[in-house]
């Protein structure tokens, strides 16, 4: 269940609040191949299981940007903001890829509110740090500060 905020203003003063974790997702070769097709990145480390078996990770690995893009899937599982007319992704800061996601790994998102402030036009802008964890690993796959802006109704 996501952490629910009835309005964007309810994010104000919630710095340091940890959100519920997303569900676990198994990263299958089919998802990696589809991402390679979408982006044109067909490097063998991602799409050639036979060659990758003898590579540095013993199997194919997910693209870092695939891992990052899954943050968009995890966010609504972790946080739900209600009572706004439009919400937009403003961008991200401090993105780091810390550990490869080997095919077949299970990953999930965890999150914490870093900041929330009122910006021009009465919108609320929130920075939420998302950590993509790999089941059974000490180091996460990815950490990113997402920047989201919620416009008033």
Describe it.
The protein is of the alpha+beta class and 153 residues long. The protein has one domain: Thiol Ester Dehydrase, Chain A (Roll), CATH 3.10.129. Helix content is 22%, strand content 37%. It contains 5 helices and 8 strands; from the N terminus they run E-E-E-H-H-H-H-H-E-E-E-E-E. The strands form 2 sheets. Strands 2, 3, 5, 6, 7 and 8 form a 6-stranded antiparallel β-sheet that branches. A two-stranded parallel sheet has the order 1-4. A hairpin with a 7-residue loop joins strand 7 and strand 8. The longest helix is centred in the first third of the chain and has 11 residues. The model has no long low-confidence stretch (mean pLDDT 97).
Helix content: 10-25%
Level-2 CATH architecture: Roll
What is the name of the CATH topology? Thiol Ester Dehydrase, Chain A
How would you spell out the order of helices and strands?
Answer: EEEHHHHHEEEEE
Alpha plus pi helix count? 5
List keywords for this structure.
153 residues, alpha+beta, Thiol Ester Dehydrase, Chain A, six-stranded antiparallel beta sheet, two-stranded parallel ribbon, 5 helices, 8 strands, 22% helix, 37% strand
List the helices and strands and how they pair.
Elements: E1 3-5, E2 18-19, E3 25-26, H1 29-39, H2 44-47, H3 49-53, H4 64-69, H5 71-78, E4 79-81, E5 86-97, E6 106-118, E7 124-134, E8 142-151
Parallel strand pairs: 1-4
Antiparallel strand pairs: 2-6, 3-6, 5-8, 6-7, 7-8
């Amino acid at each position: 269940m996501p952490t629910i905020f009835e309005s964007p203003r309810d994010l104000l003063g919630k710095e340091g609040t940890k959100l519920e974790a997303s569900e676990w997702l198994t990263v299958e070769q089919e998802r990696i191949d589809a991402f390679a097709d979408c982006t044109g990145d067909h490097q063998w480390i991602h799409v050639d299981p036979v060659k990758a078996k003898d590579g540095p990770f013993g199997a194919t690995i997910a693209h870092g940007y695939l891992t990052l893009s899954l943050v968009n899937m995890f966010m609504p599982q972790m946080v739900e903001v209600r009572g706004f007319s439009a919400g937009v992704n403003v961008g991200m800061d401090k993105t780091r890829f810390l550990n490869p996601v080997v095919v077949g790994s299970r990953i999930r998102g965890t999150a914490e509110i870093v900041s929330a402030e009122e910006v021009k036009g009465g919108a609320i802008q929130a920075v939420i740090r998302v950590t993509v964890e790999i089941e059974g690993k000490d180091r996460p796959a990815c950490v990113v500060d997402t920047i989201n802006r919620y416009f008033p109704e």
